[in-house]
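Structure (tokenized):
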């Protein structure tokens, strides 16, 4: 059934793009940005409800935000694709609530936040909103596309960078995902040309700009890069590349923790770095 759905979506986009480049490019872009949001279960929601909660407007929707602790040192957590704030439970519980104020948000199109869609520019808008609201955090801990989006945010907002950032399992570029998207759906060259044109209109930047090479010109933050050699979603070669581009960073390549990097040893490593 999954193969049939993929075939039908790919055919639909190729036919639409042959008929209407503008509409076809837009449709291809928004299907690319659809995260297939997983529903938060009762156990997850019960934990999220232990936080102080607030909402912030981003474009025409709101993002759900959370805070644990009341300490003077602010930490901001940024989750990845098809995830939500609950993924940080172990990290939150290991930090001292009288020492830190720990903030997180469900990204656009994820968790309890609004929007059907999500992408790096939307993550950047959400980050800008929450930092404007809480003030500049001392540290940001991020995972996967949340890490890439945080680096993009820091490059776009050099006046609001944290002292420290943890990047876990970050991808390399938007182009990598676009190519995989094209391969899976068997999209035509015309469809991909139209998608790229719409992306340029949407983000005011070409897809090729969203690459690690372009995100470190203004980065003076102290970094901890963690990536697992058994990560089947994003190769650890990208972490080595990031480390080369980021002189103020420390690189840790783990083994056996996969893409999620949610094990106790990783939690302790991150805690030691931010403390």
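Design, position by position:
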């Amino acid at each position: 059934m999954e193969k049939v759905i993929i075939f039908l979506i790919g055919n639909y986009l190729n036919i639409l793009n042959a008929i209407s480049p503008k509409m076809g490019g837009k449709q291809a872009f928004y299907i690319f940005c659809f995260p297939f949001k997983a529903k938060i279960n009762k156990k997850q929601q019960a934990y999220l409800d232990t936080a102080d909660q607030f909402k912030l407007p981003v474009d025409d929707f709101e993002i759900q935000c959370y805070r644990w602790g009341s300490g003077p040192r602010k930490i901001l957590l940024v989750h990845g694709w098809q995830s939500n704030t609950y993924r940080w439970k172990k990290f939150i519980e290991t930090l001292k609530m009288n020492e830190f104020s720990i903030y997180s948000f469900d990204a656009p199109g994820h968790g309890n936040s609004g929007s059907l869609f999500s992408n790096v520019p939307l993550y950047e808008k959400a980050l800008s909103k929450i930092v404007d609201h809480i003030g500049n955090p001392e540290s940001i801990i991020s995972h996967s596309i949340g890490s890439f989006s945080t680096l993009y945010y820091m490059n776009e907002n050099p006046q609001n960078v944290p002292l420290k950032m943890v990047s876990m399992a970050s991808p390399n570029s938007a182009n990598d995902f676009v190519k995989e998207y094209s391969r899976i759906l068997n999209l035509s060259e015309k469809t991909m040309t139209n998608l790229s044109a719409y992306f340029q209109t949407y983000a005011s930047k070409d897809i090729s700009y969203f690459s690690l090479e372009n995100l470190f010109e203004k980065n003076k933050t102290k970094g901890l890069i963690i990536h697992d050699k058994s990560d089947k979603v994003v190769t650890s070669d990208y972490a080595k590349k990031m480390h080369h581009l980021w002189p103020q960073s420390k690189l840790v390549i783990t083994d056996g923790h996969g893409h999620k990097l949610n094990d106790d040893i990783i939690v302790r490593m991150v805690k030691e770095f931010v403390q």
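Reviewer-requested clarification: Strands lie at 52-58, 61-68, 73-78, 100-105, 139-143, 164-168, 222-228, 249-254. The radius of gyration is 19 Å.
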